[in-house]
Amino acid sequence: MQSTHCIFSRRNTIALLLLLTIAPAAFADKWFPAAPTIHASPAGLHGFKVIPGSRVAGKFSRTQVAPDGAVTRVDGIRTEPQTRGVLFLLDEHGDEVVLWDKPLVNTPVRVIVLDDGKHVVTVDTFSHMGWEHSLVIYGEQGQVVADFKLEDLLTPEEIEKNVPKTAAFRLWTEKADIRALLDANRVEIVLAWGRTIKIDMGTGKIE
């Protein structure tokens, strides 16, 4: 049987190694568009839908000049990202009963739904982790109880020393335990380096 040999030149080998080296850095912070997701409370009593979309933010008007010098006016609609959150329960027939349906402040990476049918806690922003909206608490009827950027939760020294970073992300929840305690009415965040943050879900105050 004739064998087939694959021969790489030294130049090809160097090029391949270079590609393998830079590829992770080039694509590490690239995210696909956010997809709709659904999240359940611990006992399965409530569900929460995260539905990415857009909303009309205004109108625009501009002029454009053709090669022959003709000037035309172009009118259009300007949109911006807008994600909806839908909290619901199931009735005795298994049909959804919507408790609230409102715009969210961001598209969250993680969602914690409580069994009380009131509170929803979201962590981080899709494709922009560790900056604005690092932790958001929604109360009854979807009102925002608290909306924390990372600097509200950690000191600059803690961020610099303990938070892993990439070109675009600050991975503050890496190896962290985040839970919402219904009986205590608070969110507890146990961070990888040992610090615990406690937040009152009713007031949004850090304890």
What does this protein look like?
With 207 residues, the chain is mainly beta. The chain has one domain. The chain is 14% helix and 41% strand. It is built from 3 helices and 13 strands. It has a 4-stranded antiparallel sheet, with no helix packed on it. A hairpin with a 5-residue loop joins strand 3 and strand 4. The radius of gyration is 24 Å and the shape is flat. The N terminus is likely disordered.
Describe this protein with a few key phrases:
207 residues, mainly beta, 4-stranded antiparallel β-sheet, 13 strands, 41% strand, flat, disordered N terminus
SSE topology string: HEEEEEEEEEEHHEEE
Give the proportion of residues in helices. 10-25%
Q: Which structural class matches the secondary elements?
A: mainly beta
Number of domains: 1
Rg, rounded, reads 24 Å
Which overall shape is indicated by the principal axes computed on the Cα atoms? flat
Give the beta-strand count. 13
Strand content: 35-45%
Task: Briefly summarize what is shown.
The chain has 207 residues and is mainly beta.
Topology of this protein?
Blueprint (H helix, E strand, L loop, with lengths): L9 H18 L9 E4 L5 E6 L2 E12 L5 E11 L2 E7 L5 E8 L4 E6 L6 E6 L9 E4 L5 E5 L1 H4 L2 H7 L14 E5 L4 E5 L5 E5 L7
Antiparallel strand pairs: 1-2, 2-5, 3-4, 5-6, 7-8, 8-9, 9-10, 11-12, 12-13
